[in-house]
Amino acid sequence: MNARLDYFGNPVGGKFLKGIISAGKGLLDSSLPVTLQELVRMRASQINGCAVCLDMHTKEAAAAGESAVRINLVAAWREATVFTDAERAALELTEQACRMADGGEVTDEAWANVAKHFDDDQLAALVGVIALINAFNRVNAIVRNPAGDYRAGQFA
């Protein structure tokens, strides 16, 4: 499988990606745990069908210390006993945000639940993580970037 466009190598695409990569690095410096950020990125990428982001974020989660069990169960987080209530709230928010285009919404209940577990700075970071991974998912899906070759820390 080959990408339709070398988006990173394109001057316009590269400039755009550098901007959103920079925004993502700023979120890594927030007080929202990096492993939770990676779980959110994985779940969004599963929903959005983005193999390249799923490849990247499963490997980054493992490098950040996330267990193989939790990485493997994030797709079925509701039925798994390995996630905290805070993580479940973040994953629910992620799912609702990713499915807004399908006629869904982020419910007041989901927001109230996530707000019980995170302060305003962490909530701002969580919203940013969800928004950015959705942007990356769309770029990769549109240009059909292939997955499988990512190495943890490759874009650090």
Short description:
With 156 residues, this protein is mainly alpha-helical.
Can you walk me through this structure?
- With 156 residues, the chain is mainly alpha-helical.
- Helix content is 64%, strand content 0%.
- It has 7 helices and no strands.
- Helix 1 (11-28) packs antiparallel against helix 7 and helix 2 (34-48) packs parallel to helix 5 (85-98).
- The longest helix has 24 residues, at 120-143.
- The radius of gyration is 15 Å and the shape is globular.
- The protein starts with 10 loop residues before the first helix and ends in a 13-residue tail after the last helix.
The share of residues in helices is 55-70%
Categorize the overall geometry. globular
In round numbers, the mean pLDDT is 94
Estimate what percentage of residues fall within beta strands. Answer: under 5%
List the helices and strands and how they pair.
Blueprint: H1 11-28, H2 34-48, H3 51-63, H4 68-73, H5 85-98, H6 108-117, H7 120-143
